[in-house]
Protein: STAR4 protein
Amino acid sequence: MDLLPDSAPLATKLQNTLVQYHSIGDSEWRIAKKTKDATVWRKPSEEFSGYLYKAQGVVEDVTNRIVDHIRPGPYRLDWDSLMTAMDIVETFEENCCVMRYTTAGQLWNIIAPREFVDFSYTTNYEDGLLTCGVSLDYGEVRPNFVRGFNHPCGWFCVPLKDYPRHSLLTGYIQTELRGMLPQSAVDTAMASTLTNFYADLKKALKT
Structure:
């Protein structure tokens, strides 16, 4: 498929899916990993045979600055240790684009470098922001990469009521890495990737 989708209905559908994930009750989640920066839970995904991960932690900064570091743009590549390249393929409007990015190998290269092409959308949510994405089957796969696929995923960032300079950052990630991989390796990598994401993000915001 080499046609880009109509952005407006895709953005609405994506936003509704993420809000639905955000309303899933605590009892449905099982803890996967906990560090001083974040807690990660998981539950079986309804999109594919792997897991939907939820990550949550408090980040000391205002919501706009945090989301500017997460969404496609100049900051992300500087601090995200997993991301090795990123290009904006198409911009629909200021808060809506298609990006192609690559990730480094993981677990001593048991998981080879991956490439993704994602539709990305950022919008207001309550007193904060939601930045979300979903992969598209678009373009040729680069040599030496496996094309991965992100099922609907995103980050909710809202200010803490009593500490407006702090934000609660909650992510929902369900990445289908594809290729011949043992599920246990994928699960180990995903939980670690998410806790590392918080640690890297916090360091970047302090600079």
Notes: DSSP finds four helices and ten strands in the chain. The two ends are 41 Å apart (CA to CA).
